[in-house]
Amino acid sequence: MKTNRREFLKGASLGLTSVVLAGNAAKAEVRPNAAYEHTSAGAAGGGNPRDVKLNVKLIYYAMIHSSLWEGPCRYSEMSQGPDAERAEARQRYAETVKTFRNSLPPEANMIEPVYMEFRENTRLLPRDLRVLKDDMDQVDLYVLRGYNLSSHHEVYFASALHEMCKAPIVSAGHLGRTLAAYLDSMGAEGYAEYAYGGLNKLIALLRARKAFRQTNMLLVTEIGGAVKGPGYLRGSVGDFDDLKNKFGMGATIVGYSELTSERDRILKDPAAMAEVERLNGRLLNQTKAVHMDRELFRNNVLFYQTIRSLMAKYNCNAYSIDCIEFCSSKLAMAWKITPCVAFSLLNGEGYATACEGEIGCMLAIKLFSSIANKSAYMGNLNPYQPGPEKPFFAPYFWVNEEVKGKADFTFGHNVPSLKMEGFGTPDLPFEIRNFVPGKAGKSGWGASFKVDFTKIKEKTITLGRFNPATTKLLLTKAEVVGMRGFSSERCSTEMLIRVKDPDGFHLRTATFGHHYVMVYGDYTRELSKMADILKVECILHAA
User: Fold this and answer.
1) How would DSSP label each residue in 107-173?
2) What are phi and psi of 346, to 5 degrees?
């Protein structure tokens, strides 16, 4: 039986509240190979989010007068007769289709347009729109254009269309305002083009929302996954039922036993290992420098391939693992890896990932990347204090001495993507450095990419994240003034940033968390409009 996509996206509850998860957070140690029940939340999508397109259908409907007359809304010079009106309407329809097709952005897919006619003072019903039924499950947005229309014609048509198709509808000019207001009063989704900067800007936003809604997360954990309560990570999003109901998202949870089995399977598969070797060789040849044992670096590429394989197996397009839990499992030590390279590579491919099981940031990465068409970057956000504020770390080496005293916050993790200037741009220059320091003459292990943020021309960034309830989106514009940690081990890679009213922004972050997401460029306007579309409160700080 064919699934109705629109009904599916409305979503019923995931029903995860009844799932019993193996492993116990109260225990002192998580057993790496403990029995764990795989659970799936019925994903709303899969595949690469960059491939998502918005399916747009043009409906041109003409009001053809039944006869000639003159009155308060029709003057003699406007009267042509039904045949002449019909000929003019069809000519305008042909011109509109041609213009519409040529003006659509690449992220839109045009569904076959349709021409319709009706007479004056006709209140349409869904049965009058039978011609639209064949493809209504494919359409993401109906665009209305017409001939001889008034606002009540538009409302009659839009209300009948919504009742049958339950899809967003947009119209232009003053009629679009009437349509949007009326549909909103019905609890339906309607748009006036100009309110979102024109049709193509609205299409870009709705396409980003479609990609956002189609998020299906792969979460690797044995102590997280509770639907209510502390969540996958303390302070992170914890209610997967709510994510499904609000946004149509899915979640697949696997434990370390399956992670280990998948890694073992790849090790025994010559074709899979050939792919590991190919990627490993490309990265080692491409990097500017390697500051660790090259053979140990391969282990990190193998871990990336393991995660990619699990994502494909469960149709997932986003991923997170709680680094702290993973460290405690002792698998990282046994495999001589850290998750950093996998996070960086996946984000560069367009798959949203987040360190430390931070789902609120994963969702922000998905949204930021979809709107900016650039890879977003996650990290800790801390007020900046010059000096050795982290004395247990290796000494920080400044890339630019002149920025000392000019920064408000440090921001970063060891997970920069190579596509932070854009998915269609060349990879950023990078170096490879071990995460865990070496001991007694032995090489350090656990790789991460080091990107020199001071060499990136764009200095303006958009910074923000969702709150744990995913009811609010905090946004601000900031400026990158430097970095530190480029030549350091451990989780040391950090931007130095400036924010307007830093004290005020710091206070706002208290109800959101300490992890944040950035993307190069100022996208505060687009993201605030997206929050409106998602029915999420946008808190825009001093932008």
Assistant:
1) TEEEEEEEEEEE-TT----GGGGGGGGGGTTT-SEEEEEEES--HHHHHHHHHHHHHHH---EEE-H
2) -65, -45
Q: What is the mean pLDDT of residues 125-142?
A: 88
Neighbours of 315 (CB within 10 A): 16
Short-list 276, 355, 352, 354, CA closest to 309 = 276
Of 118-122, 283-287, 362-366, 502-506, the range with the lowest mean pLDDT is 118-122
Strands 409-412 and 377-383: antiparallel
Q: What is the pLDDT of residue 381?
A: 92
Q: For residue range 504-538, what is the model confidence (pLDDT) as tens digits?
A: 899 899 899 889 999 999 999 999 999 999 999 99
Report the distance separating Cα 138 and Cα 128, nearest Å.
Answer: 20
Taking the C-alpha atoms of residue 42 and residue 252, their distance in angstroms, rounded to an integer, is 8
Quote the tokens at residue 17.
């509240």
Q: Is the pLDDT of residue 326 over 70?
A: yes
Q: How far apart are CA 121 and CA 123, in angstroms?
A: 6
Element (H, E) at 63: strand 54-63
Q: What is the pLDDT of residues 448-494, one digit of tens each?
A: 999 999 999 999 999 999 999 999 999 999 999 988 888 887 888 88
- CA pair distance 493, 516, nearest whole angstrom: 14
DSSP of 14-34: --GGGPPPSS-TTSSS--TT-
From its phi and psi, is residue 321 left (phi > 0), alpha (psi between -120 and 50) or beta?
Answer: beta
The string of pLDDT tens digits covering residues 241-280 is 888 989 989 889 999 999 999 999 999 999 999 999 999 9
Start-to-end CA span in the chain (Å): 49
Distance CA 40, CA 43 (A): 8
Crossing angle between the packed helical segments 151-165 and 173-185, to the nearest 10 degrees: 50
Domain ranges of the chain: 5-51+214-541, 54-69+77-209
Rg (CA), the chain: 27
Distance CA 254, CA 239 (A): 17
Q: Which residues contact 458 (CB under 8 A, 6 or more apart)?
A: 421, 520, 521
Q: What is the pLDDT of residue 392?
A: 35
The CA–CA distances, whole Å, from 440 to 265, 387, 435 equal 33, 29, 16
Residue type, 281: G
Q: Are 237 and 251 in contact (CB under 8 A)?
A: no
Mean pLDDT, rounded, for 165-177: 81
Burial zone of 398 (CB within 10 Å; 0-12 exposed, 13-18 middle, 19+ buried): middle
Which DSSP helix (H) or strand (E) runs through 261?
Answer: helix 256-267
CATH code: domain 54-69+77-209 is 3.40.50
Q: How is the beta sheet containing 39-40 ordered, strand by strand?
A: 39-40, 250-254, 216-220, 318-321, 352-355
The token pair that represents 211 in the structure block: 């990609």
In this structure, what are the phi and psi dihedrals at residue 287, rounded to the nearest 5 degrees? -65, 150
User: Which residues partner with 62 through β-bridges?
Assistant: 117, 147
